[in-house]
Amino acid sequence: MSEVKAYAAQSSTADLKPFDITRREITEEDVEIDILYCGVCHSDIHTVRNDWKNAKYPSVPGHEIIGRVVKAGKNASKFKEGDLVGVGCMVDSCQHCDSCKEGLEQYCENGATYTYNSPDEHLGGHTFGGYSEKIVVDRKFVLQVPENLDIKAVAPLLCAGITTYSPLRQWNVKKGDKVGVIGLGGLGHMGIKLANAMGAHVVMITTSPDKSQDAKKLGAAEVLISKDEKEMDKHKNSFDFLLNTVPVGHDVNPYIALLKRDATMVLVGAIEPLDPIHGGGLIASRKRIAGSLIGGIEETQEMLDFCGEHNIVSDVEMIDIQNINKAYDRVVKSDVKYRFVIDMKSLKNS
After folding, report:
1. Residue 93 has pLDDT above 90, yes or no
2. Domains of the chain by range and CATH?
3. What is the pTM (predicted TM-score) of this model?
């Protein structure tokens, strides 16, 4: 075992501060990684502040991890020292339930082990995430990162990227489809980029007219202001697919009206109750509302390879770890375009 520097919160009301954690020695199945960059996800904030009422302390968040291999165990020989790799939201799963056998570890029926805030079967206690110098991960949950990409901007692909890529793939978005992306933030900006690269006609759907210019730069062909009833009416029954990235409870009925018959709106942002849904909007044209989590490891690797092929990364603002608490406040205020990424070299100064 080894002691490494990290940043942790000791309670739901405490700031993140320097804290030493223990990492296990590698087994034959493991890869040890020096962390170069770690993205800041809103889930980090929800966990640290115990918004979901399941936080374990001390809490070391971070599940958008980019680094280089230091050592690999005997059975992890496909990874070599110096390889550029990533670790996303999961570091283990049962590997034997139906979901795991199908490569859908995110839906593990015995509960996936998340990169932080999950029971740690190796050391006891709970897992610690990427706001740290190093991490040791089972080889099955280590991803290969294309070297042609701007690696600091790759980090958010491990959560925001796969969260938006997975539903676009699962619902077979293809060239020529009219796809609406609802909400322009960390998830929404990736949804636009990915759907555009898949050949879709992408419409950014937002409450904020001032986001129009950014949306078009990201790849949206059109911008639809959802508060404009006349414009919404023009787009009724015309969308092949809607990706709803709004992170809070809201009224989805106006968006249901936009869908074609048999089309689907997928929720990826609101992990909380929604406003009442009028059944008539679904029943009248056999429309659907669905949900989607992240992707499995195989699909996440597919997403990274797709991004490498199309030169897609997140729009990021770099910060030092010492500014993480200010960054959290800014994320809550939606004051970032569109993801913070921590340069983990700054941890050496803590």
Report:
1. yes
2. 2-157+315-349 (3.90.180.10), 161-291 (3.40.50.720)
3. 0.97
